[in-house]
Batch of 2 targets.
Target 1
Amino acid sequence: MTRQPIVNRTTFDSVMVPTYSPASIIPVRAEGSRVWDSDGIDYVDLAGGIAVTALGHGHPAVVDTLVAQANRLWHISNVFTNEPSLQLASRLTEATFASRAFFANSGAEANEAALKLARRVAFNRYRDNPDKVEVLSFAQSFHGRTLFTVSVGGQPKYATGFGPLPQAIKHLRYNDIEDVTVSIGPNTCAVIVEPVQGEGGVYPANREFLLTLRRLCDKHDALLIFDEVQIGVGRSGSLYAYMAYGVTPDVLTTAKSLGNGFPIAAMLTTDELAAHFSPGTHGSTYGGNPLGAAVADKVVELVNVPTVLNGVRERSAHILAALRGINGRHGIFRELRGMGLLLGAELSDDFAGRAPDFVGAALSAGVMILNAGQNVLRLAPSLIIPFEDIDEGLRRFEGAIPSVIDSEVTV
Ligand SMILES: *Cc1c(COP(=O)(O)O)cnc(C)c1O
């Protein structure tokens, strides 16, 4: 018998590559929208594992699906197909504009596939124009951490120091129709956009802006890629946000909530575009793995019903009303925005830069929330979070506010 190493939070600082600076507590157990740490202290989860646990923690039907699949078949490779991935692809194509699915393991990989597809389509269609490779993206956007996706993302700090970076990428102003109208051209092969920017500060797109992107992409034969990695799978109040906007992309990427915490992602597209990825052009060892596919199929089945989607809108309205109440008493927010259960509360100027302080104080008071940058608090709870947990979580959050207001500004 080998000895089980004793671990605690300080272990992180000695054995992990320090890409993160995790909180002082270690969650060890969770159920629904409640989490317990290694000291047995409970937290209300309004963060949802960063917009991932759409059906909360330990959902019985999802757990049963994973366990049943684990007992049947874990992994077989893409040398063979497998029933769960075929079922998931059938379900997703039936439920969306798309007729083809490619599976990956993360949002970044789904976007990588989408961007590579766009370059490939242009390569195949425009042999006489090798310059049709340009990707248009938007400031503050986030598309993942591979070298291509981090270069396409609109937050330069994430790409700094990793050069040479992929080329022919331009960043435009989000929701700025004028900027994209003058920037797009015959050399553009793709426009990639989050219908609601998540990491960048919870900014929903204007419908007029997305309609313009659709029209300009058609005009210049560029692919319109919607990155719905964060807002997708019911979080917007529709299965995908494109449905709520009434603007259909050529390619859609989805991850985070898709597996409710089991790693899986998908790139969805049309028959015609999919044909440009012939056997051997792209792939993944784990992509469409039976475990992930079985879980995702169950998640989409459970989320894509009117009770859950209407419930998202009801919970969204309930949270916004509660936040307005909190703001009436404390005056800490300058704006509340978002869509469905991806909500942002931008701090007023007096609290500029202090979003992480609020997140820390909230955790100490027993509620998990997120920030999106230094000035915006972000909520992304389970789509089926009980209203009592919302109320208890926001009560704990409100209790934590004075400690932030009264504390010195840390410079
Ligand atoms: C989280 C996120 C990604 C990256 O997903 P990973 O699974 O971390 O690779 C990409 N796009 C958006 C909009 C995201 O929110």
Target 2
Amino acid sequence: MRFDWEIDGFLTAKGDDLLIDGVRSSDLADEFGTPLFVFSERRISENIQNLISASDDGGPKIKVCYASKANSNLAVLRAVNEAGGDIEVNSGGELFKALHAGFEPSQIIFNGTSKDEREIREAIEAGIYSIQADSVSEIELIEQVASAVGKPANVSLRLVPEIRTDTLHGLQTALLTSKFGMMPDEAVAAFGRWKDPVGPIRLKGIHIHLGSQNPSPEPYARALEALYREARTIFEKTGTKLEHFNIGGGFPVNYLRDRSHSSMLNGAQAALFSANFDRSSALRDGWKRVLEKAESEGFDDLLSDVELVTEPGRSIIADAGICLTTIRHTKTRPAGPDTTPDRWLLTDAGFNILLSMETYKWYYHIVAAARASEAHDTPYRLAGPLCDGGDVYFDIEGGKRLPDHRLLPEGIGQSDLLALLNCGAYSIAQMFPYNGRPLPAVVMIGSDGNISLARKRDEYKDLLRNEV
Ligand SMILES: *Cc1c(COP(=O)(O)O)cnc(C)c1O
């Protein structure tokens, strides 16, 4: 029997067991304890390769800069590099980690709205592929720092083109009301102002990032077209030809491959979580459309040598990570008068390690890890271990942004192991030791089958670190 949540060669059910790259998840929990995050190098590599393949069949020259804010664990960064990926960083700290993980400066791009002088200096001294300037005032600061360092800065400009997507409001980033980017006119003016080919600022490209978990490919096609139109205006006004376009990240992950809980969610939320399109063919198709337009307008030479930079985070790492959690306690009680009593399962994985479950009501499908092949047909209410009423796996406000109940095998209870799937993105990158909970261990299963500790579990003494 095959389950909808399975991913061939990576996430499978065999007998009672949930296997991750062929390894029994219950063996991993026994060896490393829970809560535990498990990552697959093989799956990371497949996800990178899938996007690189957008350059096949007449697609653009693709540069895949993994957005390290989604998960900057060093083992993950090394796996990305090994798979042929480059990297996007958002801070001096992420730049430090990228260099530490072994990325070459030519593989690194640096985003962010509020870079300070030190971060800019570090990026210029390293000589990275591009600093993505978010405002004109930032270009001015980059110019000052580059002059002081005596080394030019490669710069690309982030635009805010007013392109709406159907994702959550807090995840929209290409609207004028968002805090990101500069207006298309400001970018054209900047190309006029900083056109000296031997000056401290070397403007190389333009950038649009639409947001995260964008459910439809159409905004990407519109963003490519907006980049082309902008490139044409820049060429006409200043004579400059761009070296790269950057289309950002935000490609969606289908969190509802198993549809068993989708009718328990409100329609908009179910649509968002089940978003699913082939990102490489979406980019290839969008690129072909823009090429045709450029040819018809006689500007195809503006595109012939352009490199298309992408910044995928979630779509590279989300489905490559699983969170294993143990049910610590159970209880039974009615949710109200005349209702059948709810069976509660209290796990050891709270929102301090899966913050999106609280902030964005993010859905992670759950499989009983040592009873994976049994029918998951009995409803339970789930909650994490924190002394905080918001630490529950349902929508406490009743908006059906998460299902009220999770379907698991009949009779599951204390000490049983659960696997939360698609947990690799925006999880350990956002964890914090709320309630004095030591941060969890992380394991990487290598492409060669070797299991290695990628992060050791914190001890109590780590709770004192930096306290004076
Ligand atoms: C967060 C972010 C990304 C990655 O978004 P995903 O949804 O994880 O793919 C890419 N680019 C920029 C500028 C970002 O802020």
